[in-house]
Amino acid sequence: MTKVIPTTPIAGQKAGTSGLRRQTRDFMAPHFLENYVQSILNGIGGAEGKTFVLGGDGRYFNAEAIQTILRMAAANGAAKMIVGQNGLLSTPAASHLIRLNKTNGGFILSASHNPGGIDADFGLKFNMANGGPATEAVTAAIFEATQNISEYKVLEAADVDLSTLGETQMGDMQISIVDPVVDYAALMQTLFDFDAIRALFAGGFTMKFDAMHAVTGPYAKHILEDLLGAPAGTVMNGTPSVDFNGGHPDPNPIWAHELMAIMTDPDAPDFGAASDGDGDRNMIVGRGAYVTPSDSLALIAAQAHLAPGYAQGLSGVARSMPTSGAVDRVAEAKGIECHETPTGWKFFGTLLDASRVNLCGEESAGTGSDHVREKDGLWAVLMWLNIIAKRKMSVGDLMAEHWQTYGRNYYSRHDYEAVDSDVASKLMDDLRTKLPALKGQTFAGLTVEKADEFAYDDPVDGSHTSGQGLRIFFDGGARVVLRLSGTGTQGATIRVYLERLELDPAALGMDAEEALADVIKAADAIAEISARTGRAAPDVKT
Ligand code: VG1
Ligand code: CO
Fold it and tell me: What stretches in the chain show pLDDT beneath 70?
């Protein structure tokens, strides 16, 4: 029987960079999840007769939230739900299932790289029929629905057994419990030269993949160990846990320190990689050679044609604005389109759908292509393995060759986390006011050439997005960008993105922080970050 529960709007149910993220206890509070799910359904014009994909990264509250969403979808008239076994689906695998089954969209339960657990974070994101995150227009409609909600519908029904593959029923709604890995693994085999990678491993190539106790464990084990023949144990931390074993499932040198320690050991394997909570981010590291995500994107742009799925070459590339310009240099050399979009994968969707681009990336360890409409951690890892198998070079040598060819965009991101929200907004507001006067002024020896606030006009659907980060360009090609994070759940996180282009072949092997020393000083002099936050140094440098 369907129950109609009266409710009132809950303030602040507004999607950020990637869906709604909150502390887990907030999501578990009465009506919180229900209000948001009903608002999604209201915002997209109802669920009647529709089919959706449903799954998450396995964090605390994942399984309970799935049962709630099933009961609400059934009560709202959905025809069918395709659910990952045990409630698990990586974000790219969910995107693929949405497309493969031509569904109306999907619900992805994840707070991605944020920690999990009852005292950590939870999240919910709605993806559309193209498999990509809801566009700004749709998230705005959902937000409006959260502000007008007065009731939600839920079916009185017992929990569904999520562990048994196959078909089942809830009320009139069909439920398919599917293997989360199989279809995704099949897709990967259409894109990459599995024989070449298999031969690489058979020849003694060694690798460690750190799944960080998150959702990619089962995917990586099946693809790397079962299909590609990498030895058992190649995948570490491969069993998903509700709190990521107490860790922070963010694949960067800080949080993936266990892998970094292995990769900097004299006996390090040839190749290391890691993925995040929901499997859409990647970290690439060679023996003693960490690759920044912006450089990884550029190298992939230069060499993707070595993978069968991209043998015809790329149609174009897109990067988020704070991502370094390294990929632009490759696009220019290849004479292909290159787009600069706001932060967040949702802005790549129109370009991918229109076949204007088929490679996208973000500095935050997100890389992907038109095979799905999300960034894809394992895809990037397989792309690197495919390139290494063809070029027969180490990660370090491949990067050195790349920089010799295209120059090096030295790059670093400094994050100041859990800053008082008022302090952070005032810092940004004051800097915004100051921007027009900066031109011509010199800070730490760097003269400002231009300063502005990034806004984006989507070349495909014409939509306009403003307020996407403050940018300061210096003579000689250096750049500082500041923006506030839209994925955090406590206070504000100030992200400072630092970049400098180096073309001197003799100066390409420096430490990034050293190479950026003046840019870092100039950023602090202009934005007064340390003075205003009272922080002597950033919390995280990636
Ligand atoms: C961060 C990253 C952004 C990424 C987003 C979602 O957003 O900077 O590039 O798209 O996370 O990634 P923000 O607003 O905190 O800077 V994921 O893997 O957390 O879904
Ligand atoms: Co993620």
Answer: none
pLDDT at 422: 96
d(CA 204, CA 370): 32
Please give the distance, rounded to the nearest whole angstrom, from the Cα atom of residue 488 to the centre of ligand 1. Answer: 9
**Claim to verify: residue 194 and residue 164 sit in the same structural domain:** no
- The pLDDT of residue 353 is 97
Report whether residue 221 contacts ligand 1, using a CB cutoff of 6 Å.
no
CB-based contact 187:379 (threshold 8 Å): no
Is 463 marked active-site?
Answer: no
Q: What are phi and psi of 48, to 5 degrees?
A: -50, 120
Q: Please indicate whether residue 127, judged by its CB atom, sits closer than 6 Å to ligand 1.
A: no
At 287, is the secondary structure helix, strand, or coil?
coil
Amino acid letter at 1?
A: M
Name the pTM for this structure: 0.96
Ligand 1 mean position, distance from CA 116 (Å): 16
* Residue 210 shares a structural domain with residue 314: yes
Domain end point (choices 367, 388, 406): 406
Residues 307, 314: contact at Cβ < 8 Å? no
Closest atom of ligand 1 to CA, residue 483: 16
Q: What is the predicted pLDDT for the residue at 154? A: 98
Q: Which of 124, 244, 252, 364 to mutate to test the pocket of ligand 1 (most atoms within 8 A of CB)?
A: 364
CATH of the domain at 413: 3.30.310.50
